[in-house]
């Protein structure tokens, strides 16, 4: 007897990512780490395959008092944490034309969940790009919403501003409110970063709907690994002083930038157009949080607060992280250069953990993934593309991967289109 209620969701679907990653582990156990390229892992690893953990952050965690772990935190988050998060997001350029508030969430995931739940209605469609982090869909479905997609790139591999506008128009013909998720900089899974003119086009499309309520959520999960901190935050200025029907939101995550993946620490921030909308944000977030996870992780919040209260410590965290960011950028560059050399088309990668290689169709992407497995290379097929993780491969592996992918594609195409290898 089936007891769990499906409620329109798909439950029990095998996790593709987990499946490929288990196969990679089995192959490594069989042949040894040197013989296998495992590009399935979504976290930053050092060249020995170990999780990168910032020492400065770990020291701060070890310095916590028992109460920092044991006591409850206020539902919206510790006040010192909320101040720290504003600094983490805006640095010393706090918005002047918007009302900023923040609320704790367990990671960026929690922030995204609360944003969707508070600013859309059950049955609504939210909007994001066709290439996106798949939990957006799971989170939306869990609370009775669905995801509509525009194609992220046009034929020239540029941001497809008109596709964005058209999809937004379509959705807003059917409903009075929606939420738009833009994952930038260092988008997962392509590594794309929206340019200033991409943002202008997004905002023009959104402003074309003065009679609708639109929440615009910037998912900045990878911002601290994108590059120059100020440059990569400059887009936030464009979200200031927007019309009153638009609510700019930012999903902050300490998972990557502070290597606190497992501590579940993040926040949702608003850049509200009015004081009233900011107060409402605070009130609604308190209810959303109370009803989903209640109080947050006090220890994690205290660590972030301590980092931002101590200039020296903050500097150490930044220096350590920047050293790793250089390693990551080197891996990305190695992949991009090698792809150019072998003539492998990739989506426009700017920075971040992932690179995506378009394969044209889902069938071809699956076949290329399988052909790579025969060559002891494990990547994640994602729709009609394959995702490579520069974050978890060495520079040498990143240099070799494009040639291997091109060879796998050739092998698949020789099958005459049925991809039976
Ligand atoms: C695009 C994107 N957004 C948000 C997150 C949220 O991560 P977390 O909930 O661990 O902060 C991730 C994590 O992989 C991500 O890739």
Structure keywords:
15% strand, 421 residues, globular, alpha/beta, Aspartate Aminotransferase, domain 2, three-stranded antiparallel beta sheet, single chain, 13 helices, binds pyridoxal-5'-phosphate, Aspartate Aminotransferase, domain 1
Q: Can you offer a commentary on this structure?
A:
By secondary structure, the chain is of the alpha/beta class. The protein has 2 domains: 16-54 and 315-412, Aspartate Aminotransferase, domain 1; 72-309, Type I PLP-dependent aspartate aminotransferase-like (Major domain) (Aspartate Aminotransferase, domain 2), CATH 3.40.640. Helix content is 43%, strand content 15%. A 5-stranded mixed β-sheet has the order 2-8-7-6-5, with helices on both faces. A 3-stranded antiparallel β-sheet has the order 9-12-11. Strands 1-10 form a two-stranded parallel sheet. A hairpin with a 2-residue loop joins strand 11 (380-382) and strand 12 (385-389). Helix 5 (107-119) crosses helix 6 (135-142). The two termini are 40 Å apart. The model has no long low-confidence stretch (mean pLDDT 96). The structure holds pyridoxal-5'-phosphate. The site of pyridoxal-5'-phosphate has 13 residues, from helix 5.
Number of helical elements: 13
Q: Based on helices, strands and strand pairing, what is the structural class? A: alpha/beta
The percent of residues in helical segments reads 40-55%
- Termini separation comes to 40 Å
Shape: globular
Share of residues in strands: 5-15%
Specify the CATH class of the largest domain. Alpha Beta
Strand order of the biggest β-sheet: 2-8-7-6-5
The CATH superfamily title of the largest domain: Type I PLP-dependent aspartate aminotransferase-like (Major domain)
- Total count of strands: 12
